[in-house]
Each structure stands twice: as structure tokens, then as C-alpha cells.
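Bug report (template v2)

What were you trying to do?
Predict the complex of my protein with manganese (II) ion.

What happened?
Run completed; filing so the output is reviewed.

Input:
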Amino acid sequence: MFPSCPPEVLDLLRAAGEVIIIGHKDPDGDCLYSTLALAELLRGMGKSCLTVNSGPFDKPETASAAPSFVTSVGDEVYSRDPLLVVLDCSSMDRTGDALDAAKAGKLRTVIIDHHASFEQSSAASYRVPQSISTTLLILQIARQLGAELTKGFARYVLRGFLTDSGCFRFLGKDQGDQLMMVADLIGRFGLSINFECESLFSHDDRRSCIWLSRLLGRTAWCCGGSVALSYVTEEDIREFDGIASPSSDYYARVMKVEGIKVAVLLRFEDENSTSIGLRSTHMSNFDVGSLAQNFPRRISGGGHFHAAGGLMGVGLEQAVPVIIGALEAALG
Ligand SMILES: [Mn+2]
């Protein structure tokens, strides 16, 4: 069962006439679409909503949502004493400079968040760390308020969910309730997962295909074919300046090869430092997080079981044998 929203949060939302909704700065899709979903819901209840974010709106899934946001709030808004809702983060500090901190600090505030770590605060809050996206919290609020859902609202909820779940792939075995919540919306409103994923994420520069082909072409297969290793050079970074690295496509492609357990992508940082990205297949059951914790010449590193990374205090050419040695020892 998905945890319910506390009554005091619902009461504050019901009682409000005007609402400022803001998520964290440097927003992702879940942050922006949970803001838009809540605004759609509250406007349907006759309330006036201001959707605010400090930006920048530079991720593939955030650029198209940018026109729906303001990046600053006029003094006259504060003087009307609106309700402030802070989303997808747990404190005002994370929201950037779009709000006047002194004036916003005096407003009645509600926090709606799904991050595990949060600061203590006196504000009314609805926090569900096990929820994969903040948009599911907004959906749960809509259900509890008994609101009539619209297709626009359903799309916002799905878009936040697709962003934070990696298009369903990060959904855990114990998150079946959340899958059912989203499946209900998809079925009821006839939404297309392919359409929503493409409109969120298919905005790459065409030169990213050339960059990806270089990374794939440079791949060395080690440890009896169980490790694929490639690298981003200083020249790549110069040539493909301003283009998002095609690293996730690189991992996805090499991890389709028979026998692979671990994919490694190194990146030139400077003469004496190299960043390392590691992914392991779900079939391998290999923990790259603890490997990254224990790398020789490690400056920083760690992460999750199947996805980890870090920084190493050697240049790219010296990093390669160190990584291969560590993987050979670990994989046997
Ligand atoms: Mn989120």
C-alpha cells in the first residue's frame, strides 16, 4: 500500500487560495513535472498557482517544460500570503534563488518529497522515501482529495515517473504498488510509454552518434570477455564540447554482448586524474559499488551495486592497467 498523505497537508492545500509551487534548482523531469501536476490539480480546484524554478532547464527532459515556469517572484505575490509548496527536495536551501528567502520563510509551507535524507523542519510534510518519483505523491494527494483526474495531469505524473524510474528499469521488486498506480493511469487515459519517453529524452545532438561510435570502436574486452572498457579522451571533450556524453548508451550497448559482466568507461579529467564509471549487468550479480570504494589510487568513489564511479589520482594511460588489475582480481 502506498503511504497516505497526512491530513494536515491536505487541509492546507484545500484551504489555500493562492499557491507558490517550487522544486529544487538544477531540476530534473520529476521535479518539474511534479510541480506541473500539482498546479494542474489545484487549478482544477479553483486555486491560483505560480509554478517556479531557479533552473537551469538544460536536461533533455526539462527544456520543453521551461516555458511553464517563472524564475523569480514579485513582492506583490508574497504580500498576498500564498501557501508555499516545496517539492522533490526537503528544504528551501535547495530551491536556488528564485524566491526571496526572507519573505518565503514567513509563508505557511508544505514539503512533498521522496528523498531518503531530509532536514528537520517545522513545516507540514508528506515524505515517502520508498516512492520512485515525487509525481506519485502528487497522484496519491489527488486520490485523497477525490479530484477528477485529467489526461494532462496523468501525463505529468507519468513523465516524472519515467524520469526517475529510468523508463521503468529502476523499479524495484517491492514497488509493485507504484507500478499499478502508473499502469492505471496509462490504461485509463490511453497514454503511450514510447511517445512520452521519446518526447522526454530524444533531444540529443546528432554528433553524439559519432562520439558513441568512437567509444564503441575503442572498446577493449578483458577478463575473458567479461569486461568491456573504453575511454573519453581530452580530444573528445574538446571536439564534442556542449554535447551530453553518450555514456548511458555506451553501457547499454556493450552490456548486450554475450558473457559481459562489467562495463567500464574512463574519462580524461586532467594529467593526474581520471574519472571512472562502472556498470554491472543484473545477471552478473557483481557489486561495482564496493569495487569503486576499494580502488587503488582512489580519490573518491562509491555508489550502488550495479552502477558506481569515482575519481582516480592518475592520468588516463596509467588508470587503464590499474582498473584491469582490480577487475581481474575481483572477477577471478
Ligand atoms: Mn525526484
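What did the reviewer find?
The chain has two domains: 7-201, 207-331. The chain has 13 helices and eleven strands.
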